[in-house]
Design brief:
The chain is built from eleven helices and two strands, in the order H-H-E-E-H-H-H-H-H-H-H-H-H. It is mainly alpha-helical and 281 residues long. Helix 3 runs antiparallel to helix 7.
């Protein structure tokens, strides 16, 4: 296990270094890219379309033209940001989570497929390849959480609820591991999987409350949206870092159980399909 941990860290460093090698900004890209996205989305949705984020994010609908009153549910930290600043921070939280899953969906299908030499010529623990995909994607959510925490610290709205982040992260990582293991193994046999993921990622962006709060979804459809683990993760992260809401343990426990079972099932599928990787590649 220690040897596997060493291999994982070395492969993760190699993956991150290779991705940004030769670029002028280098490792600043995980910061610059989401900031550019937030600036564009805030300009379009908040500036042009006059979409505002409800203060507290727990109740009410998206407003047009005017800011929302204080939310009826959940305590809002004193001095909580409003207007464009509030909208940008809430979008940032949603994008941090979405970018994590989007990267896993986009890169996992080629995690094994793109390393034929490791499959056919050397003895290598192939399960580390999708694991590295998850680790590299974690950089996005980690950078987002740190920047959000710094923003709330600067504005004086940081609350003790941020201490729940390690618990919040557990189901998120397990969901990512499930997707990475499943897609990495299927991607070797079905090359169309990688092409399908780009379309799925585009749909996921708009079916996840990134640019709008979950409370804006009509009640008749809200149950379906709440089944989306990305939606739960984004809403929970906003609650912890921006709204002073504690992590709701009942939904968290459900997601932890589901994600753990799904990750175990995906690991079983990966192990069963691994024996044929060399024949296909």
């Amino acid at each position: 296990m220690t040897r596997w941990g060493f291999l994982f860290l070395q492969w993760l460093k190699r993956d991150l270094a290779g991705r940004y090698r030769g670029s002028l900004l280098g490792m600043l890209w995980p910061v610059a890219q989401p900031l550019a996205q937030i600036a564009v989305f805030t300009l379009i949705f908040h500036g042009f379309m006059q979409v505002s984020w409800p203060v507290g994010g727990a109740a009410g609908a998206v407003a047009t033209g005017v800011a929302q009153a204080q939310a009826a549910q959940g305590a809002v930290p004193a001095g909580a940001p409003s207007g464009a600043w509030a909208y940008a921070l809430n979008v940032f939280a949603g994008l941090a989570v979405f970018n994590f899953f989007a990267e896993v969906l986009g890169r996992a299908p080629t995690a094994v497929l793109g390393q034929p030499n490791l499959v056919t010529k050397v003895k290598f623990p192939l399960v580390l390849l999708p694991a590295v995909t998850v680790g590299a994607a974690l950089v996005h959510v980690g950078v987002g959480a740190v920047l959000l925490g710094a923003a709330t610290l600067v504005t004086g709205t940081l609350t003790p609820q941020a201490a729940w982040l390690p618990l919040w992260l557990a189901p998120v990582l397990l969901y990512g591991a499930c997707l990475a293991l499943l897609l990495a193994s299927l991607g070797v046999y079905v090359r169309d999987v990688g092409q399908m993921m780009s379309a799925l990622t585009s749909l996921l962006m708009f079916l996840t409350p990134i640019f709008y709060p979950l409370s804006a979804v009509p009640p008749s459809l809200r149950g379906l949206f709440e089944l989306n683990p990305v939606a739960w993760a984004a809403d929970s992260l906003r609650g912890l870092l921006l709204e002073g809401r504690a992590l709701e343990l009942a939904p968290w426990a459900v997601h932890l159980g589901v994600s753990a079972a799904a990750a175990l099932a995906a690991a079983w599928v990966f192990r069963r399909l691994q024996g044929g990787f060399a024949d296909v590649l």
